[in-house]
TrEMBL record:
CDD domains named in the record: OYE_like_2_FMN (cd04733)
PANTHER family with a match to the protein in the record: BINDING OXIDOREDUCTASE, PUTATIVE (AFU_ORTHOLOGUE AFUA_2G08260)-RELATED (PTHR43656)
GO molecular function, one term: oxidoreductase activity
InterPro entries: Aldolase_TIM (IPR013785), NADH_flavin_oxidoreductase (IPR051799), OxRdtase_FMN_N (IPR001155)
Organism listed in the record: Saccharibacillus brassicae
Domain NADH:flavin oxidoreductase/NADH oxidase N-terminal per the UniProt entry, residue ranges: 9-339
Name of protein: NADH:flavin oxidoreductase/NADH oxidase family protein
Record SUPFAM superfamilies: FMN-linked oxidoreductases (SSF51395)
Lineage of origin: Bacteria, Bacillati, Bacillota, Bacilli, Bacillales
Keywords: Flavoprotein, Oxidoreductase
Length: 407
């Protein structure tokens, strides 16, 4: 191992936890749970590989707080202690060798596909627009009491994660899910204390954080994944995002992971321009607040990662898709065996089909590779979209082809 590399330096978080290096495996929904939405031996095997691969913080795919509100088939749900044994096995495997394992905690709000929710809930009854909007039913507005109930659910899921041996949690505040919906003025038109001013739109997130902190204690890491903006007309702006970063830093959050509008949004994909899209924003945040920042979306090369850390643009390097192809990138980099990887755009060979199923093609390919890693099989490196699409239909039926994310 080369101790001079920036990526190899440990990092101490505000809560006191020491992270062994600067690699953060960003959340990827594994879609591996069965109908009971419980973690199983596939999760155990996959996370063992990631922990043994050298990553400092391994963040799980989003875990849902409510069985009645799923983002997609195969989500893990943690709303009570029924899966404690399975969660313990998962936590033990995912922390091997000193890796941190953080559970990403989420509620989809209106971004729960019509195949899963007849009537999803949201801050306001604003339907999802855009080309994938038809895949989601119009939501109903949450009552004030229901909002407070969901705050409690986030904290309860976090408490169970802590008891099971997870070493941290991450609130999913990005990618158009419920926390993001509250933050965005385009989605949140409420008149109560959770809507209106930037301060009110932030209240749901702050109450979740405060309640988690209360039940988890001062020494347990809590992170947040946040969009730099959601790139929607009248939506969540960089200015809004900056206010959230400042408020959360003041409250003592351990790590803020900056991400984009949506991972199928070209704005966040590195294939197009070969650079990490959110680095400029993160660099500005790093200069105004003292909170560790991770940037995710587009990191591929060792050089790019080293340069971003050396220039002080970010404290951690978030990586998702490449780690579903090569689970030990951190070790390979630290041992001088890795330079870069290309994440190719997959194609069916028919542009109109690619457009129609674009969002699903990317997801299904990486889900397929995660499952293969969990099963001890080699990943399939190819650009043919048919193989992963058929894999998904075989596993989840034809409904798997309808979009699960909104843009
Ligand atoms: C299959 C798949 C599932 C994902 N699931 C999640 C998720 O559950 N939570 C989340 O915050 N981001 C999720 N993401 C987004 C990634 O965490 C990341 O932000 C995005 O892929 C960009 O990083 P990359 O260029 O390193 O892949 C997912 C991405 C993929 C490809």
């Amino acid at each position: 191992m080369n101790p001079l590399l920036k990526v190899a330096q440990p990092l101490t978080l505000p809560s006191g936890a020491v992270i062994r290096n600067r690699f953060l495996k960003s959340a990827m929904s594994e879609a591996m749970a069965d109908r009971s939405n419980s973690p199983n031996r596939l999760h155990v095997e996959l996370y063992r590989k990631w922990a043994e691969g050298g990553t400092g913080i391994v963040v799980t795919g989003n875990v849902m707080v409510d069985r009645g509100a799923l983002g997609e088939p195969g989500n893990v749900v943690v709303e009570d202690r029924r899966d404690m044994d399975g969660l313990k096995r998962w936590a033990q495997a995912g922390t091997r060798g000193g890796a941190h394992l953080w559970m990403q905690i989420n509620h989809p709000g209106k971004q729960s596909p019509r195949t899963m929710s007849k009537q999803p809930v949201a801050p306001s009854a604003v339907p999802i627009g855009g080309s994938y909007g038809r895949a989601f039913n119009t939501p109903r507005e949450l009552t004030n009491a229901e909002v407070k109930g969901i705050v409690k659910r986030f904290a309860e899921t976090a408490r169970i994660a802590q008891e099971a041996g997870f070493t941290g949690v991450q609130i999913h505040g990005a990618h158009g899910y419920l926390v993001n919906q509250f933050l965005s003025p385009a989605d949140n038109r409420r008149n109560d204390e959770y809507g209106g001013s930037a301060e009110n739109r932030m209240r749901f997130l702050i109450e979740i954080y405060d309640e988690m902190r209360r039940v988890l204690g001062a020494g347990f890491p809590i992170g947040l994944k946040l969009n730099s903006a959601d790139f929607k007309e009248g939506g969540f702006t960089e200015q809004d995002s900056e206010e959230v970063v400042k408020a959360m830093a003041e409250r003592g959050i351990d790590l803020i992971e900056i991400s984009g509008g949506n991972y199928e949004n070209p704005k966040m994909s590195a294939e197009d321009d070969g650079e990490v899209f959110f680095l400029k924003y993160a660099e500005r945040m790093a200069s105004i607040v003292h909170v560790p920042i991770a940037v995710t979306g587009g990191f591929r090369s060792k050089l790019g990662m080293e340069e971003a850390l050396a220039a002080g643009k970010t404290s951690m390097i978030g990586i998702a898709r490449p780690l579903a192809l090569i689970p030990d990138i951190p070790n390979q980099i630290m041992e001088g065996r890795y330079e870069t990887v290309t994440t190719q755009r997959l194609t069916t060979g028919f542009p109109s089909l690619d457009r129609q199923f674009g969002a699903m093609i990317g997801l299904s390919y990486y889900e397929q590779q995660m499952r293969r890693i969990a099963q001890g099989k080699a990943v399939k490196l190819h650009r043919n979209a048919w193989d992963p699409l058929l894999h998904m239909v075989r596993r989840q039926g034809i409904a798997a082809l309808s979009p699960r994310r909104s843009n």
